Structures are given as C-alpha cells and as structure tokens.
Amino acid sequence: MRFALRRVGFFVLTLWAALTLNFFLPRLMPGNPAEAMLGKFRGPVSPQALKALEVAFGVETKEGLAGQYVHYLGNVATGNFGTSLYFYPQSVGRVILDALPWTLGLVGLTTILAFALGTGIGIVAAWRRGGRLDSIAPPVFVITSAIPYFWVGMMLILVFAEQLQWFPAAFGYSITMTPSLSLPFIVNIVEHAILPATALLITTIGTWILTMRNTMVTTLAEDYVRMARAKGLPSRRIMFDYAARNAILPNLTGFAMSLGFVVGGAILVEYVFNYPGVGYMLLQAVSQEDYPLMQALFLLITVAVLVAILLADIATAILDPRTRTAD
Amino acid sequence: MAMMPVSGPTTAPPAGLPDQALPVPTAGRRSQALSRLVRAVRSNRKATVGTVLLVIFILLALFPGVIAHKSPTATIYPRSLGPSAQHLFGTTALGQDIFAQAVYGTQQVLVIAFGVGLLTTGIAVLIGVAAAYLGGAWDGVLNLITDVLLVIPLFPLLIVIATYVQNAGTAVLVVVLTLTGWSYTARQLRAQALSLRKREFLEAARVRGERRMYIVMVEIIPTMTSLIVASFLTNALYAVLFGSSLQFIGLGDPNSVSWGTMLYWAENNAALQTGQYLWAIVPGALIALLGAAFALLNYAFDEIGNPALRPVRRIRVKRAG
After folding, report:
1. pLDDT tens for residues A28-56?
2. Does the pLDDT at position A19 exceed 70?
3. How many domains does the structure of chain B reveal?
4. Composition of chain A by helix, strand, coil, percent to 5
5. Cβ atoms of residues B98 and B157 within 8 Å
6. Which is higher by pLDDT, B162 or A181?
7. Contacts of residue A143 in chain B, CB cutoff 8 Å?
8. Is there a domain that residue B317 lies in?
C-alpha cells in the first residue's frame, strides 16, 4: 500500500513538473515568442478566443504571474486547452481526438508486433548460440538501432512508393475515398499503414532482440537449466519453460513502458509519411506556431508515458514481491 | 555442445578496462592500461570497425578542405545535377555541391556528438556520485529531479523547447540536448556508486583520513571508468540522432551546414519526388554510419566487460606454439 502511494505521489509530482514546464517555457524565452504568434492570428481569430489565449500565455495581461499560473492549472484540470489557432475554430481537444486513433492504430499495433517478433528471434538466437542467426543478428541490429528512423521511412518511400509504386507514400487513406466501415476503405487504410509500420518495425525490433538474447544467454548458464538438461527434459521445454520464461522479465517491463511511448513515439515517421496522427499534428502545430495545440499535445504524450510507467510499476510489484520493499 | 560459456583460450586479455581501482596511476601503469585497451579494441571486430569509422569522421571534420575542394554553401553550380566527376554526389536544387556539404557537415555533427556526450556524462557523474556519496536529503532531492526528468518524454520536450528558441545553432543545440539528456546516466552512476559505498577500499581510505574530494576523485570515479565510457558513447549516439532529427524538422539553424539540415532542405525541395535521390540518401547514410560507429563501440565495450556475451567462435584448432 505504501508502495502504491509512493508511486502515485511520484506520478502527480511529475505531472506537475510537466505542466510547470509548459507554463514557464514560453515566458522564459527572450521576448515571449507567444506574443509574435498571437499577433499573427489577430485577423481571423475571434477577439474572445484571442483574449483567453493572451491570458494563457501571459501576453498583455494585468494578472500577476502567480495568478496566471493558478488560472492555467485550473484550465488544464477542467480539460480546457483553448482553441487551436491553425485549425480555428476547432478546439484543441477536438483536433487531438481526431488524430489519436490514427496513432494508436499504427504505432500501437507495430509496437506489439515488434515486441513479439523481436522476443521470438532473441530466444532462438540465444538458444542456437554461435549459429548463423546468432552471428548475424547482433551486429546487424546494433547498426539498425543507430539509423535515424525518419530516414528509413524516406528510403522506403524512395524504393516502394516512388520506384516500385507498390504502396502510397503519404496520408492515412486516399483523399478520394469517403471514410466508412467498408472493406475497400479498410484495405486502403492498411495499404497506407504498411510503409510507416515497416519503418518503425525495422528501427525498433533490434532492441527487443538484443535485450532478449543477452538476458537469455545469461539465463542459459544458470544451474537450473543445466539441471533440466541433466534430467533429460526435451529441449523445447528447456528453451521455453526454463530459460525464456525467466529471461523474458526485462523485455516485459520494457514492453509495458513502450506502450506509453506509443502516443508520442513515432513523431518523425508520421511526419515523413504525412500520417494524420498525434506526432504529425505536433509538428504541424510547431511549424504553424499554434502554441496552444503544441502544449496540449506535449501534455498528452507525457501523461501517456506516466500512466504506462505507473501501471508497469504496479504490475511488477504484483508479479515480483521483492520490488515492493525496495525503495 | 554450444552451451558452455566459452571464453576462447586464444582470445585477448579478459578486460580492456581497469576494473580494480588503481590508486594514483603512475605513468607506467597508464601506458600499460592504454596498450591493453588497444589490444582489446583490435581483438574485437566490432570495436575495430567502430574505431576506424570514428577516426575517419574525425579526420573529415578536422580537414574537410583536403578532399572537398568546393564551398559547401556557394549556390553557384547548375541546379539538380546527377553525380559526375565534377560533382561526386551531384548538386542540390539550390545549386550547391552535395559532396562538399556532406564533408563539411561532419564538423557540426561531431561537435554536437562530442559536446553533448562529454557534457551530459560530466553532469551525470557529478549528480550521480554526489547523490550517492552525500546521501540523506541531498540524495532524495537529486534523485527526485533525475527521476522526473527521466520519465518526461525526451523528443517531444526537445521539440517544444527548440520551437520557442527558434533557429537553434550548434551551441544552443548542445545546451538543450545536454540539459535534457543527462538523467539516465546519472541514475546508472548513482546506482553503481551506491554499490561501492560499503566496499573495503573506501573504508580504508576513510580510516586513513583522506579528504572527501580525494575519495571521490581518486577512489570512486576511476572504479566506474567502464560505465562512464559506455555512457559517453550512448549519449553521443543520442546527440547525433536527436540533433539531426531536430534539424531535419527545421528546428535547427537552416543556414548551417550539417547532415540534418541537408535532409531538411532535401525534404522541403521534394528530393525524393523529383529524382534527386542522393541529396536525401547521402546525409542519412552518414548519420547512420556515425551512429553505428558509436553503437558498435558501445556494444564492443559491453562484450569486453562481460565475456558471456562475446560471440562464440567456431572452434578452430590452432596449434599455436
């Protein structure tokens, strides 16, 4: 119980830190950049919306800093993130809700796939120590982990969209189609998702493979594995029930964490493919100087990570009693 | 058969880095450690490749003019040329020589990599060791700051900061990447310093009446050398990837010469859609190569420190004398 309370306390504290960063960053910069941004939108945006934003960013307001801060925290607590300037007159919340499913679908599924495939390959590589897979996989995936993943996306576009023309190079679905729950539309969505998903898979799978392989190699040297061998158990059983089962814990914790990074983890892939998800929206907000949208997206991404970490902590505490007492 | 944790009898010395603390390393001992390091690097193929790549990049950064004779910024050539003897990688849509840009761009990327690598690792050593050694309330506060920074998603935070800063040059990029990037290393170093705290050689130093500063600088930090080196390599890789990513989305200084900025201009001029492939391929491949150099070195240090991870060589019976 004390453990859970501590974790929740940390969660609240970090959330507060992120909120405070959001609040103070534009105010700390020389010549508050929000001022220039708001000036740009003075024409098309209604005076009331603009007034609210001026208060939110501390421009031309008579309220003191402390008052602004309380005001800001109150707005966030009630889910009021203001109006998007670029997508005016839509609210920031509306824009985010439209973008979220795209990211959850693309990045979420790819994360699960990368974890499952990577862990499997890692198990086999460690089991056949010194075999062909084991000698090829580690160096190859050490190198792929160093490739910028947006560039992998660009190369995929070059080969499979521009040269071979197998898959579309951009967007979540063809603009000529009207969104509906029909088979052709779903096929269209999948076609558009294949290249970005591949780019993510190539650059993330290496970590799963290497972590799994390295833990498994250590586990295979344990006495209980030798014991299982001496008892003459079938090797499949030793591989999965004795070695892999014990070696998978670090990968499982990593997986729980990576689910939190789904929301904000593929910003550049979405950017390269013009995929209409959260990351693409964030960069749209950045390039259009739509600061309210940018702040809210940053907050959303942070909260997703925090929740995943909290859940992973609690799950680990339930699964492994030793962690409950450690501080 | 392949199950035994084999450490080949012919492979090089067990550890390339001093695991035991060497109190007051004399010149002789230091050169001995250095030659052991050289031997370890040469016996590990990943380390060899990583070192060679890194040395090539450092030479390019120091003497770009030797192989690139053209100015990287001059927009004086015919636009969008393909590769030729005149322009090895062709020219950009703005009329710049891509080869010259690639060569001259090395400098900024390396400054960011080494600057951020050294600074983050330095801050992490300072904070991690201080937290572990001072203990009590200091540890509580420093640890909390580290943990909070650790869980805030890094790249989105970088994007937000860089957006407010606008057109971040090299120095600003180094500062921003450093301020946001030290927490993971600090946590690792704190954990290791904590595990050292009760060791006998520190107790002995304390009984001898050594000053705190001496204990930290001479007894604790040298013991963590291998972790510090590994952290530097990881942080340098992180700086290369994140720095280039920020420049790619246009949050760096668009007039600077670097690989990330090249990719930014390539993307903005639709290089992939207009057949100017080398403009997009070359800088990305260079980032990947430099990143691979750091990653390979890091992995190799892991293997050198932890013999169980080394690749098992097919046993070649060599009747060595």
Report:
1. 776 666 666 776 666 666 777 777 777 77
2. yes
3. 1
4. 75, 0, 25
5. no
6. B162
7. 288, 292, 295-296
8. no
Domains in chain A: boundaries: 96-288
The CATH number covering residue B165 comes to: 1.10.3720.10
By the CB < 8 Å criterion, does B218 face chain A?
no
Is there a domain that residue B101 lies in?
A: yes
Domain annotation covers residue B199: yes
Q: List the beta bridge partners of residue B252.
A: B168
Adjacent-strand bridge partners of A91:
A83
A95 burial level (CB within 10 Å; 0-12, 13-18, 19+): buried
Planar angle of CA B121, B122, B125, nearest 5 degrees: 85
Asked whether the beta carbons of A138 and B299 are under 8 A apart, the reply is yes
Residues 177-206 of chain B whose Cβ lies under 8 A from any Cβ of chain A: none
Residue-level pLDDT at A113: 94
Beta-carbon neighbour count of residue B34 at 10 Å? 10
| Chain A: closest CA distance from residue B178 (Å) | 17
- Chain A / chain B CB contacts < 8 angstroms: 140
Q: What is the mean pLDDT of chain A?
A: 83
pLDDT in tens, B119-141: 999 999 999 888 888 888 888 88
pLDDT of residue B56: 93
Question: CATH second-level architecture of A96-288?
Answer: Orthogonal Bundle (1.10)
A-chain CB neighbours of B267 within 8 Å are 154, 272
Residue among A10, A18, A218 minimizing CB distance to B152: A18
Chain B residues whose CB is inside 8 A of the A309 CB are 151
Angle between helices B98-134 and B45-62 (to 10 degrees): 120
The answer to whether position B58 is within a domain reads no
Q: To which H or E segment does residue A192 belong?
A: helix A183-220
Give DSSP secondary structure letters for A44-105. TS-HHHHHHHHHHHTSS--S-HHHHHHHHHHHHHTT---B-STTTTSBHHHHHHHHHHHHII
Q: Rg of the Cα trace of chain A?
A: 24
- What range does the domain containing B216 cover? 88-305
